[in-house]
Design goal:
By secondary structure, this protein is of the alpha/beta class. It has helices at 19-27, 40-43, 78-81, 94-104, 120-123, 135-153, 167-178, 205-214, 228-237, 250-254, 266-279, 284-294, 300-306, 311-318, 332-383, and strands spanning 8-10, 32-34, 38-39, 47-51, 56-61, 71-76, 85-90, 110-115, 157-163, 184-191, 218-222, 245-248. It folds into two domains: 8-263, TIM Barrel; 264-383, no CATH class. The protein has 15 helices and twelve strands. Strand 10, helix 8 and strand 11 form a beta-alpha-beta unit.
């Protein structure tokens, strides 16, 4: 069973928390990694597909449109993150939560319930931070997961929350959550209305830890942690024991190597990320998203990566990064050529599709004419 005590972990982040980011974080010292929140209703529709070529396990949502490939909702690399990846579930229903968790539990180290995200995609239908307003529902979900998923599979169930309006209300909620049988509580040290630019409220942590400790539940603090060194400094300043862990979000999105005491500069972290993304065939739109986060806006590479369309483009541009982030060679000409070739390929593909369509229509017309001719012959024969 995964042990959360004292661990420094990667936060669940939509888009940023895909496989390449998780593997890079683990390579550079993350103890555990959370995957991005996935809604229960989507997960139960997925098919588990072992990917022998990539050595991954994929949870795939079948396509509803002919000709379109299925969508990989969640991909994990067991050899590299097995026993260290926590699946975050978006849910508002004990029944659906159990069904969804049982779908994926064999490939992850634990299940975490999202009860802290204030974004619309999480709080709609009563999920995410909306669960803080319905503690009975939240506790019901956690008890069901502990009893029907966690204990049967010897896997931990955890929950991530935000602070409530005051310390008393927060402690009352924490006490109820700890009584459900969860193994870990992650607290984002901001209230639901607060935004990430606002300083976190860490003064509640000592009291929260006391309640967690009494129930043998580990505690992880989240909010404005910048790296391993900063996490250890904050924990010491608050006089919290080393059993209290830390969760990094924004700083890890900008540089997944911050879990190391000596994180890489962005221009060294980027090529590592791109190599992993290429190896595991990360969707290029997601790779571009991460480049927009990892590359400083003032660097010319920010614009170069925006122009990339393929994995080869990203790799080529990444190879132009010098030892200090300077540009060894301007990739503009290469990207223009790549773009032209891509457009020609699309044009050729479109032409083949149109030709196939025309041939199909012509064949159908001939079949119809043959049928009409045969029907005409039968009619003349009957009349004769």
């Amino acid at each position: 069973m995964a042990n959360y005590a004292g661990k420094l972990v990667l936060a669940p982040m939509v888009r940023a928390g895909e496989l390449p980011t998780r593997l890079l974080a683990l390579r550079h010292g993350a103890d555990l990694v959370w995957g991005p929140e996935i809604i229960d209703k989507k997960l139960v529709q997925c098919q588990r597909v072992p990917n022998d070529e990539l050595q991954t396990v994929d949870y795939v949502l079948p396509s509803t449109h002919a000709g379109k490939p299925p969508v990989v909702v969640f991909r994990t690399a067991p050899a590299l993150e097995g026993g260290r990846v926590i699946f975050q579930l978006g849910t508002a229903s004990p029944t659906l939560a159990v069904r969804a968790a049982n779908t994926v539990i064999g490939d992850v180290a634990g299940i975490d319930v999202n009860a802290g995200c204030p974004k619309h995609f999480s709080i709609h239908a009563g999920m995410g931070a909306a669960l803080l307003r319905t503690p009975d529902t939240l506790c019901g979900i956690l008890r069901a997961l502990v009893d029907e998923v966690g204990r049967p599979h010897s896997k931990p169930i955890s929950v991530k929350i935000r602070l409530l309006d005051d310390l008393a209300a927060t402690l009352d909620l924490v006490e109820k959550l700890c009584a459900t049988g969860i193994s870990n509580l992650t607290v984002h040290c901001r209230t639901t209305p607060m935004r990430n630019r606002e300083a976190p409220i860490r003064s509640y942590l000592a009291s929260i830890f006391e309640l967690c400790q009494a129930s043998k539940v580990s505690l992880i603090m989240n909010g404005a942690l910048e790296g391993r060194k900063h996490f250890e400094e904050v924990r010491a300043e608050l006089k919290l024991p080393t059993d209290v862990g830390g969760m990094i979000a924004e700083a890890a999105e900008a540089n997944p190597t911050v879990f190391s005491l000596n994180p890489l500069p962005w221009h060294q972290a980027v090529p590592e990320y791109l190599q992993i993304a290429d190896q595991y065939r990360n969707h290029t739109s997601n790779t571009k998203y991460m480049m927009n986060r990892m590359v400083p806006g003032k660097s010319p590479f920010y614009q170069y990566f925006i122009r990339c369309k393929t994995s080869d483009d990203f790799l080529y541009v990444g190879k132009q990064l010098g030892p200090n982030g300077e540009c060894l060679s301007d990739p503009t000409e290469y990207l223009a050529k790549s773009r032209k070739e891509e457009q020609q390929e699309k044009k050729a593909t479109k032409g083949k599709l149109l030709q196939h369509h025309d041939e199909s229509q012509s064949k159908g017309k001939r079949v119809l004419e043959d049928e009409n001719s045969q029907e005409s012959k039968r009619t003349k024969t009957e009349q004769a």
